[in-house]
Write a structure and sequence with these properties.
about 250 residues; alpha+beta; Cathepsin D, subunit A, domain 1; 2 domains; six-stranded mixed barrel; three-stranded antiparallel β-sheet
Length: about 250
């Protein structure tokens, strides 16, 4: 049913309820009424079309606004993510330094017996080079332990076997070791360990020595592996292969 027919239907119902005086309406009245109905229909159609256009523009405007808001949100999120991204740190190359060892040509070649100077004295001792011993040993007399500033020290005397001139030294005790001795009645001997500065050939070394009485032994000094490591090569077929290149110091 069209809008015009609906209006006619409503009008007929309205007119049917009126008094008998209007039951016979002239054709002029119907023509005028028809024009009014037509005009009313046109007005209603125009308003509906206008409303449709307004709604359409409203929806389009809303969609455009939502699209702009969405694009703005995407930009803000992108900026936020970039700001939170950790900065790249340029990694420095890791350089591994290899431990340098003395080449064979730079090492001092010694024989089975060598002359050794003990600093700061003028004493030069014949030393037996013993690769089987871990720690070096030196002939020391009158070994006396004492304390200095709460630290353990030791006083001892070195004797030059050629001149019998004694030299008294004092050194801090590094540690005390037990040395097994099959020739002694005891199973082991306690010895103090000190650090001495020595010279073999042209090599100056700080080395650990145990102090013990070697008066009745052939060699007053024994050089062990602790003094030989990395700087000395032993040629057991010879003796005195590394002559001293130092000057004697005054007593």
């Amino acid at each position: 049913m069209t809008l015009k027919n609906l209006l006619y239907f409503l009008l007929v119902i309205f007119l049917s309820g009126c008094t008998q005086a209007y039951n016979t309406t002239s054709s002029e009245h119907f023509d005028a009424l028809d024009k009014r109905i037509t005009l009313l229909e046109q007005n209603i159609s125009q308003k509906l079309e206008k409303n449709d256009e307004d709604y359409k523009r409203l929806i389009e405007s809303s969609l455009i606004q939502q699209s702009e808001n969405y694009a703005s949100s995407i930009n803000e999120l992108t900026t936020l993510v970039k700001s939170k991204k950790p900065a790249k740190v340029k990694q420095q190359p890791i350089i591994i330094q290899k431990k340098t060892t003395t080449s064979l040509k730079e090492k001092l070649i010694v024989g089975s017996v060598e002359k050794v100077h003990i600093y700061p004295s003028n004493i030069i001792m014949d030393a037996r080079i013993d690769t089987g011993a871990e720690t070096s040993s030196i002939d020391a007399r009158e070994i006396t332990r004492f304390e200095r500033d709460g630290k353990k020290w030791v006083r001892f005397t070195l004797v030059d076997r050629k001149t019998n001139i004694p030299y008294v030294m004092e050194r801090k005790v590094i540690r005390v070791v037990r040395i097994s001795q099959s020739s002694l009645e005891k199973e082991y001997e306690k010895r103090v360990v000190v650090v001495l500065k020595i010279t073999i050939g042209d090599k100056k070394e700080l080395s650990e020595f145990t102090l013990t009485d070697r008066e009745h032994m052939q060699f007053p000094m024994l050089i062990g592996r602790n003094a030989l490591q990395d700087v000395i090569v032993v040629d057991v077929s010879g003796e005195y292969l590394a002559p001293l290149t130092i000057e004697k110091t005054k007593k």
